[in-house]
């Protein structure tokens, strides 16, 4: 958590220096801070005692989405910040003596974003800008997907990811074009992408994108805990409301090309959120996300049995698709 706090402080220092002269000259009425928080809940359960044949088994799912945002709007600048956590856990009833107990992890994403822009010239469409993205996870992940080491079919379990292992950071200074209040495009010709794996035992697995060197036989002979890329990044964002503000749409597309290694293979992060207002402060949110990084390895269901992580599967770069829906309570304070 200390590294995320340091990154946020760094973004704060950069943004503060960029808008120093604007803050000095702007009147108090020209500057507005808006703070928002949101909690989305994914909670369901099923309990059965003495089930009939074919009735199923017990199940408990708990988790959700938590967001906190702080946005500053001034006459000649904007600054948007958001900290979000997506976490969903599931526990199923046992159907055999060898089946492990405990919660399985379905989703675990901890993400910080910060974007600052300062107007260029007398218009309202062009901004000098800087963008920061930092992403990790909160809880440890084991190969079995349980929250603790668990033997399955006599096979030893091992941890494959943890908090700050990996940590992905992107910093992109550049220019932003906003043709209207709903749409924006930011381009950075000198963006930095940094991957850090704090745990040596995880860095040597060669699955998180850190630098690993292998010999002719494929054996690892050297590894670093980090990966550093320098390239260009294009970020497109769209926000709007429809049907008398009953439907809110938020979409973001990030494209990063690394000048130093295979620039044709871009890193892609495409996020979408459709929020349908049910009552005041309460909404049904539909979330969809697509992620691809040529340096990160995903689990490929090679044998097509819809079981990820068994002996027939393999690890390789691939597009990860995530979808979820949940009830969300939002507040402004």
Could you walk me through the main structural features you see in this protein, from its secondary elements to its overall organization?
Helices cover 8% and strands 55% of the residues. A hairpin with a 5-residue loop joins strand 10 and strand 11. The strands form four sheets. It has a twelve-stranded antiparallel β-barrel. It is flat and about 70 Å long. It has a single domain, classed as Beta Barrel (Outer membrane phospholipase (ompla), Chain C). The N terminus is likely disordered. By secondary structure, the chain is mainly beta.
Keywords:
333 residues, mainly beta, Outer membrane phospholipase (ompla), Chain C, twelve-stranded antiparallel barrel, two-stranded antiparallel sheet, 3 helices
Q: The CATH topology is what?
A: Outer membrane phospholipase (ompla), Chain C
What's the average pLDDT?
Answer: 84
Largest sheet, spatial ordering of strands: 1-2-3-4-5-8-9-12-13-14-15-18
Number of helices: 3
Structural class: mainly beta
Estimated radius of gyration: 22 Å
Low-confidence stretches: 1-12, 21-29
CATH architecture descriptor name: Beta Barrel
End-to-end CA span: 25 Å
Counting DSSP E segments of at least 2 residues, the number of strands comes to: 18
Q: Assign a percent range to the helix content.
A: under 10%
Principal-axes geometry comes out as flat
Count of structural domains: 1
> In percent, how much strand structure appears in the residues?
over 45%
**For the record, what CATH class applies?**
Mainly Beta
Order of helices and strands: HHEEEEEEEEEHEEEEEEEEE
Largest sheet: 12 strands, antiparallel, barrel
């Amino acid at each position: 958590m200390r590294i995320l706090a340091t990154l946020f402080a760094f973004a704060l220092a950069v943004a503060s220096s960029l808008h120093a002269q604007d803050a000095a000259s702007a009147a108090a009425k020209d500057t507005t801070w808006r703070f928002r928080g949101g909690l989305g809940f994914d909670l369901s359960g099923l309990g059965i005692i003495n089930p009939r044949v074919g009735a199923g088994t017990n199940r408990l799912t708990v988790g959700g989405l938590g967001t906190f945002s702080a946005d500053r709007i001034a006459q000649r600048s904007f600054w948007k910040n958001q900290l979000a956590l997506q976490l969903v856990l599931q526990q199923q009833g046992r159907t055999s003596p060898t089946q492990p107990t405990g919660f399985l992890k379905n989703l675990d994403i901890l993400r910080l974003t910060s974007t600052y822009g300062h107007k260029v010239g007398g218009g309202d469409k062009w901004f000098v800008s800087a963008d920061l993205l930092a992403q990790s996870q909160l809880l440890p992940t084991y190969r079995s997907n349980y929250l603790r080491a668990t033997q399955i079919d006599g096979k030893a379990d091992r941890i494959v990811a943890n908090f700050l292992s990996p940590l992905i950071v992107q910093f992109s200074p550049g220019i932003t074009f906003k043709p209207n209040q709903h749409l924006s495009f930011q381009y950075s010709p000198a963006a930095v992408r940094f991957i850090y794996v704090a745990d040596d035992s995880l860095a040597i697995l060669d699955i998180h994108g850190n630098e690993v060197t292998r010999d002719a036989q494929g054996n690892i002979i050297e590894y670093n805990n980090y990966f550093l890329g320098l390239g260009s990044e294009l970020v497109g964002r769209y926000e709007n409301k429809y049907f008398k503000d009953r439907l809110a749409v938020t979409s973001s597309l990030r494209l990063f090309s690394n000048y130093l290694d295979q620039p044709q293979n871009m890193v892609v992060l495409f996020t979408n959120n459709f929020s349908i207002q049910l009552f005041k402060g309460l909404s049904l949110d539909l979330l969809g996300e697509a992620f691809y990084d040529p340096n990160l390895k995903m689990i490929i269901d090679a044998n097509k049995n819809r079981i990820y992580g068994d002996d027939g599967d393999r690890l390789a770069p691939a597009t990860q698709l995530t979808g979820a829906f949940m009830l969300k309570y939002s507040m402004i304070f």
